Amino acid sequence: GEFIPYFQAIVRSDNKQWAGAEVLMRWQHPREGLVRPDLFIPFAEHSGLIIPMTRSLMQQTAILLAPYAQHMEPGFHLAFNITARHCQELDLIEDCRHFLQAFPPGHIKLVLELTERELIVPTEITHQLFAALHELGVMIAIDDFGTGHSSLSYLRTFNVDYLKIDQSFVAMIGVDALSRHILDSVIELSAKLNLGTVAEGVENEEQSDYLTAKGVEYLQGYLFARPLIGDQFITSLLSRFDKRA
Ligand code: G
Ligand code: G
Ligand code: MN
Fold first, then answer.
1. Distances (CA, A) of 182 to 78, 169, 171, 172, 210
2. 100 near 42, Cβ under 8 Å?
3. pTM here?
4. Ligand 1 near 147 CB (within 6 A)
5. Which residues have CB under 8 Å from 123's CB, separation 6+?
6. Ligand with smallest separation from the Cα of 79
7. What separation, in Å, do the N-terminal and C-terminal C-alpha atoms of the chain show?
8. What is the mean pLDDT of residues 129-134?
9. How many whole angstroms separate alpha carbon 82 and alpha carbon 210?
10. pLDDT of residue 11
11. What is the pLDDT of residues 41-65, one digit of tens each?
12. What is the residue with the minimal CA distance to atom 24 of ligand 1?
């Protein structure tokens, strides 16, 4: 019960309204306080505990957020980080089904973020898994895109819907021309492959304006919202929704 969800909003670039959120795990340690995931996720992965921990994170998120579904726009994204190893287990299908069942039918989109840093080995299981997830309407995003080495066939094999451009590329905006060309190529590739694009780590207006002008659909970063604990996320969600209504 010490591993809890934090939520970071993802905005639509054209109107900057909340279009979804990424669920980020935190360890609320009784003595150490809040522990960042980079300090414990590697151990959780190594021990295999990451699978029940992620399941618990999905359950906690459904309990916290489902009562507020009507304050989320239709198609609101809720994204979880999933490790490659988790994709070798068909249990993930049931976890996703349960999560979706907690919300009004068709109201939200469940997104699984798979990091590009660890590639999923295609097996009979992954084939079955991704077909079933697709059937359920679960969307797949490649996280930290540009930092790993996924091929075009990899993106096709796993039926990818979104690319999340790594924050290291966003940080290149306004720095030098060469870096910007690299970023531009990643955005163009995403558009040519007909994938949705999310830029991570957006911290200032210059980055936001640049990415919006380049047609990146979704933005995430401290400029819009920090990762928030459940209560704060819900309060912020409600106040925004009320202003629009
Ligand atoms: O949350 P932060 O803001 O500190 O995230 C640091 C790293 O930990 C990121 O790479 C993020 O993808 C990863 N991370 C956060 N939550 C989870 C999770 O629930 N599962 C996995 N596998 N990784 C996570
Ligand atoms: O899952 P992923 O590897 O994309 O994790 C996102 C990480 O980036 C989390 O650690 C999150 O806290 C962090 N993050 C989110 N927004 C920003 C930002 O605007 N700037 C920086 N430096 N980090 C961010
Ligand atoms: Mn992520």
1. 29, 8, 12, 9, 14
2. no
3. 0.96
4. no
5. 88
6. 3
7. 36
8. 96
9. 29
10. 98
11. 999 999 999 999 999 999 999 999 9
12. 81
